[in-house]
Amino acid sequence: MKQILKTAVLLFFLLLPFSALADEAVMPRWGVGLNYPGAGIKYLFNDKLSLELRGQFVDNIVVGGLRGNYYFNPESNAVLFMGIESDYVSFKGEESKGHGFAGELYLGIEFFLLSSFSLQADFGPAFITLTDQDSDLSVNGIEYVVNFGVNWYFGSQDKEQAEEEEIETEEEEGYDE
Fold it and tell me: 5 CB contacts (<8 Å, ≥6 apart)?
């Protein structure tokens, strides 16, 4: 678990400086996603970078971790992105149980059906290492992972629009007095 926390903090601080380099016309926003078979919450620093906390659960396997995404063409309805993911894995089978870690590089596409709702798919190689709790037997290797999901975004607003609305509100309040 310490490894996940270290990776999460490292990923956050590696991505944070790049958020200042991207266009700051859009205020930060949040996203909630359902993916097969799990869920996640995403924070968009700007229109180019996001950080996502994600969990997946199936057949006594739990995978949880962080993803960092870079969006190539955020102004499009079909947004191409690439990312890196770091996960903690826990499993319990009929003959063994244990834990491990996974790291993935991926490419994906996100189709916006509405301005705040999208369908997403990504694909890439993941390096996975697992250790059995009782025998300390360890196995690792590369697997190819495909993810599908839907996202709902909220809280975004154009900075200029927000400033204009604030000025209009102040002017209206001034006329009411």
Answer: none
CATH code for the domain in which residue 23 is found: 2.40.160.20
Q: Where are the beta strands (DSSP E) in the chain?
A: 29-35, 38-44, 49-58, 61-71, 78-92, 97-114, 117-132, 138-154
Q: What is the largest CA-CA distance in the chain?
A: 77
pLDDT tens, position by position, 111-158: 999 988 999 999 999 999 999 998 989 999 999 999 999 999 988 655
Q: For residue 65, how far is the Cα from the chain centroid?
A: 9
Which pTM does this prediction carry? 0.72
Specify whether the CB–CB gap between 3 and 88 falls below 8 A: yes
Number of domains in the chain: 1
Q: Which two tokens stand for residue 84?
A: 């890196």
